[in-house]
Amino acid sequence: MACSVLHVADKLALVRGITPKGLGVSGSDLHRKYQIPRLSLASNSRNLRVKTLIPKCSVSASRPVSQPRFIQHKKEAFWFYRFLSIVYDHIINPGHWTEDMREEALEPADLNSRDLVVVDVGGGTGFTTLGIVKNVDAKNVTILDQSPHQLAKAKEKEPLKECRIIEGDAEDLPFPTDYADRYVSAGSIEYWPDPQRGIKEAYRVLKKGGKACLIGPVYPTFWLSRFFADVWMLFPKEEEYIEWFQKAGFTDVKLKRIGPKWYRGVRRHGLIMGCSVTGVKPASGDSPLQLGPKAEDVSKPVNPLIFLYRFILGALAGAYYVLVPIYMWIKDQIVPKGQPI
């Protein structure tokens, strides 16, 4: 069953004209390159250095990044959030992106001055931005998202009234080179057809010495959760985040694990908001990384039947991850503290 559905996903990607471009590498390639069965995922520009001991995410490889999942397309994501925006702050955030998690994830971004110029890419309803404006003047913050429905929710929030709110594409940012002091993106990379391009753009828009902070999912180790993750959207491995940041030109790349308290650090089922990755831009100008054309052209027409089929399957797979935090919360109430779950 799992193999057949993923085979259909590959065929649909080919129908759309998306071919593998080698953007990213498989988990097995990364393990062979880094040889890190138990190693920190904090790094500098030349090598990885030990900070804390953590286990590998998984011994099995996820689907290649060049073969997008059902909702790892901009058009599907647009309509997915057309409906999800209605309940996002009240239904999704409590199980996947809490205020405590937000504060922990933003801490490495060094939002240490009211005068910093910050771009919040994929800012959605502004939940992450609310954490940013605690330390940075709202007038210096720009929220960008491709979903007008999500942004409409952000506009309703009083602390964000002075923020600049615009529609835009994370893989083609409407900001000049060397523009911002900080780049923040939370819960957005999972929908990027070309994550390496999005991180390259983060590098470009930052000033020299600026810092990028990308918060996103981590790949699960449990087989059923891996299946639904691969059908639904992009769940990168922790090593892949580091690879993308380093290829884009960032230095002092570090990864910090986050998660709801009731998960007790367990990664079996993956986390939609599971890590905060930071990197520093060492020099002015564009990223040294050269890429070809975009993986997805949203201006091209799409067969409506194929679109609907992909959207429905992707949304059903996403429903699994609505149930996971409920399951983990119940286990946390039953299993005594101090025991792994």
UniProtKB/TrEMBL annotation:
Organism superkingdom: Eukaryota
Region of interest (SAM motif II), residue spans: 163-176
Protein name listed in UniProt: MPBQ/MBSQ family SAM-binding methyltransferase profile domain-containing protein
Location of the region described as SAM motif I in the Swiss-Prot/TrEMBL record: 118-127
Pfam short name (any one): Methyltransf_11
Region ranges (SAM motif III): 204-217
Keywords (A to Z) from UniProt: Membrane, Methyltransferase, S-adenosyl-L-methionine, Transferase, Transmembrane, Transmembrane helix
One MF term in the entry's GO annotations: 2-methyl-6-phytyl-1,4-benzoquinone methyltransferase activity
GO biological-process terms attached to the record: methylation
SUPFAM superfamilies: S-adenosyl-L-methionine-dependent methyltransferases
Domain MPBQ/MBSQ family SAM-binding methyltransferase profile: start-end pairs: 69-278
Source organism (scientific name): Carnegiea gigantea
TM helices/strands, residue ranges: 307-330
